Automatic annotation (TrEMBL):
The lineage of its organism: Bacteria, Bacillati, Bacillota, Bacilli, Bacillales. GO terms for biological process: single-species biofilm formation. This is Glycosyltransferase 2-like domain-containing protein. Gene3D superfamilies: Spore Coat Polysaccharide Biosynthesis Protein SpsA, Chain A. It comes from Paenibacillus beijingensis. It comes from the Bacteria. Pfam families: Glycos_transf_2. InterPro entries: Glyco_trans_2-like (IPR001173), Glycosyltransf_2 (IPR050834), Nucleotide-diphossugar_trans (IPR029044). Residues 12-178 form the Glycosyltransferase 2-like domain.
Length: 308
């Protein structure tokens, strides 16, 4: 793939939204203030009723309307990508904020390497983030950048494919070459695309200098639902399953969190850590076997109700 390194990439920023709230205006302001301004900002709005679409239009964004019942993480992003005219696509979520003015420039720089297919940013926990959430972000998004290829599969397993559409960029021609995102999918659309790129011989770049503010204080019940959808999406893509048996990143994170809580005298948080990770594990296992569950339980356990 020929890349003109002297010419900066035109980045089409794509943001799916649903009632994005008052902070959304700040996100748009921060994007426009980038050292490498976005070529365009495309907002795929899922029938918001809080003025999100109107705010985006007033800010000069291209707004695409999506019915809530037709939303899915892969299909909606594919729909928006088809409307994009930039050299590269930068996928973001409505609740991620650039930490500085170099976010787009950094990710565009990662994509200047012709061997890199997909590049994602570092996620920095918000100031109000819970201690466990902060540690999770630091574990999954360390201070050092990383380049992952097929050669890392034996050591890292599925973590080789880890990539987050909270803030991730891919060249438009590469996106089309790889067939876009899996659709429909309720979860992991970014990981599945990254996996196809790696298995085709390309690299995934984690750029720790490209930073966004992003975190959630999920309850154990919310984590159960997230991991139910995680497991269900994995079970629907059987080709990915052989890579899940390698690597123990999850258990390493739990051990590190427990040790940190004990070291800092926050041992009363240990039961919460156990409950949260039990919810994740049970949710994931049930999701992997969701087809065996009654439709009522599938809907109750999922954050995204299955269509049909």
């Amino acid at each position: 793939m020929l890349i003109d390194e002297a010419k900066p990439l035109n980045l089409s920023v794509i943001i799916p939204t649903l009632n994005a709230g008052p902070e959304f205006g700040l996100l748009l302001e921060k994007l426009k203030a980038q050292s490498l301004p976005p070529f365009e900002i495309i907002v795929a709005d899922t029938s918001s009723d809080d003025g999100t679409a109107e705010l985006a239009r007033a800010a000069g964004c291209k707004v695409l309307m999506v019915m809530r019942e037709t939303f899915d993480h892969g299909g909606t992003r594919n729909f928006a990508a088809r409307q994009a005219a930039g050299d590269a696509l930068l996928f973001m979520t409505q609740d991620a904020l650039p930490c500085d003015e170099r976010l787009l420039e950094e990710l565009a720089g990662s994509l200047a390497d012709p061997e890199v297919a997909y590049a994602y940013a570092r996620q920095v926990a918000r100031p109000e983030a819970d201690v466990l959430e902060r540690m999770s972000r630091e574990f999954n998004y360390p201070e050092r950048s990383l380049r992952k290829t097929r050669a890392d599969l034996e050591r890292m397993g599925i973590k080789t494919f880890f990539c987050s559409n909270v803030c991730a960029a891919i060249r438009t021609d590469m996106f089309r070459k790889m067939g876009g995102f899996v659709q429909p999918t309720r979860f992991n659309e970014d990981l599945f695309l990254a996996a196809r790129c790696v298995l085709k011989g390309y690299a995934i770049a984690y750029n720790a200098e490209a930073k966004v503010l992003h975190s959630h204080n999920y309850s154990a019940a919310q984590q159960f639902k997230r991991f139910f959808d995680n497991g269900a999406s994995m079970s629907e893509q059987e080709w990915i399953l052989p890579y899940t048996s390698v690597g123990k990143e999850g258990s390493r994170l739990v051990r590190a969190q427990a040790q940190a809580l004990l070291r800092t005298g926050k041992w009363l948080r240990i039961p919460g850590l156990v409950a949260e990770n039990a919810a994740k594990l049970i949710g994931y296992k049930l999701g992997m076997n969701y087809r065996k569950l009654p439709a009522l339980l599938q809907r109750r356990f999922s954050m995204y109700k299955p269509k049909g």
